[in-house]
Amino acid sequence: MKINKILVVDDEETISSYLGRKLTKLGYEVLVAGDGETAVDMAFSSLPDVVLLDVKLPRMNGYEVCRKIKANENTRFTTVIMLSAKTQGNEIQQGLDAGCDLYLTKPIGFPDILQHLKSFEK
Amino acid sequence: MSTKHSPNDEDERRRLQEYIFGLEDANERIETLTNEHEALKNSLELFLAVLGGTIQGITLIRDGRFLWINHGFIDILGWDFEQLCGARVEKIFPNPDEFQRIKEQISSAFLTDGQINIQYNFPHKEGHRVPCLLTGRPVDVNDESKGMVFSLTDFTEQEKSNRELKQEIKKRILAQEVSVRAIEEAERANRSKSDFLAKMSHELRTPLNAIEGIAQLIKERVNDPQSVDLIEHLEKSSHHLVALIGDILDFSKIESGKMELEHVRFDLWGLFNEAVSTLGYRAMDRDICLKLNLDSRTPRYRMGDPIRLKQIVFNLLGNSLKFVDRGSVTVDVRPLHDHPGCADILEIVVADTGPGIPAQALKKIFGKFEQGAEGVRKGGTGLGLAITNELTKLMGGNIQVSSTVGKGTAFTVHVKLDEAPESTEQKPQVVIEPVRNLRALIVDDVPVNRMVLRLLLKKNDWDVVEAQNGLEALQILEKDVTFDVILMDISMPVMDGETANQKIKESGSPIKDIPVVALTAHAFSSDRERFLKAGLQGYVSKPVRPEDLWGEINRVLKQTNLEPTIRSC
User: Fold this and answer.
1) What percent of chain A has pLDDT over 70?
2) Of A18, A106, A109, the CB nearest to B14
3) DSSP letter at B89?
4) Which of B11, B16, B25 has the CB atom closest to A18's CB atom?
5) Distance between CA B54 and CA B75 in Å, rounded?
6) Whole-model pTM?
7) Distance (Å, rounded) from C-alpha B538 to C-alpha B95?
């Protein structure tokens, strides 16, 4: 799979803007959303290849966003990488149940995130 | 515990995430800055290498202090980097007044011209002065506080090469003077060569005059055929010598550019007829057929120098006759007026059936003293063809030669002869006869010359009185004024002929009307003009030929309206 477009979803602006800047510098087209509802809307309208998704979000949490993306005909094959500070086993299980392709736990360095992204490109 | 700690743990993780990303971001910025710093350092090094390596001195001056100087500046004025950087500018000047002066000079230059371009002998740290060109400009025209950049160019080398250049010029001027002197020397040498030739010809002609005259007189007195033969040989040799002297003189005149051609009306037909008939005896002697083919379209009269044209024809004819043993020599003359651009050109072809000339010799044939072995054997000056060549050139023409060994040689001459105006009177042919029964005063320092003249005149019933020099002649003329003509040598001791003539012409007595004929071995035609201008009525060159003498006496007597009685011989 070739990754062109990435949707970054996080309510912490420092995080979303840093990720956005780094990914843009690497040549990806980056979209940013600060809450769950916006994230779903943007995923449906822009059809990104990958969604980097935080779990704790206003208006709609990450599990719900992931479920909606995976339930939609147009976005069911979009890669969803969950990025969360929630590290309990049941919390991770919730994410996997929601259909995410990868569950990463915070804190994580950008090089690691990039390595996982690249693994999807192979 | 896990549920209790979970939110704290979660928050901790969120904070940590932000912290990590912040660190990453900071690291990245540091990396970027480090790169930028490296790049800046590199360009600064490059910049310093260029400025530092420049031979010219460069300095940045701000607030009256040296902010920076390059190696060039250090090399030119001798101060160290540490000694000057940060120091006040006046430090390099031995006294403050000088610094003020140069400062004012710089300010005024900047104010009037908008630029600084000053030549000044800057003080070196060691005390001596260094000739420099100072140029400068502000770092920012709108902000004086940013200082000024000056550049200092050392002139020492240029001044040195200027000095060397001046010395070189001096040397060349000297060399030029030397060559000018050499040229003058050569010109003087040439003049003296010319003088030498004139003197030599004079010296040679004088004894030749005697030899020819005496030979003639002896020939009339002897009947013995063997003696006559010997005398004729003597005459021939003497004629040859006269010809040789004439040729050498002609050539030296041509070489020195003194040869001047006459421009008179003359009889072209007569000239060729005369030339061919004069040399006819040489053809008849050896059974050679000498022919003149004069094209009927050849104009009879033309303008030019008949004597020199005759010389050309004589030289070529003489040359052919010298080498041909049997067969023919022909002279073809035709005008080229049918050819475009050749209206006044006359073509003369002298062709013979002689031995011909090898190609090698043909190339050099018009050089001076170029004679083949045959030419040496047959006699000749070796100058004839060289003179002929030069004369044709002077006549606006040229000469060409073609030859086949064993078949013969043909010389083709083209000369330019201007159209002659219609003659108003037909001159009757003058037959020169001896003038008889008159009275002459002969003035000559050489006894044998006097004798020859005396015998010639006496034979024709003249009464003759002799004087050895001009002064003696004047003494005689004081008592005796009844001479029909005075025959006056020019070069004489005590008083020369020109001075004597002048005294005769200036005297109030009747002797001033007696015509004076110069007899001289001065052979240049310019001499003739000089003598005639000096008031001498006539001129006969030595050796004196009787017909020349009679002709000249006849002429001067007619001029002075004392018609002599001419009796037939």
Assistant:
1) 100
2) A106
3) G
4) B25
5) 11
6) 0.39
7) 93
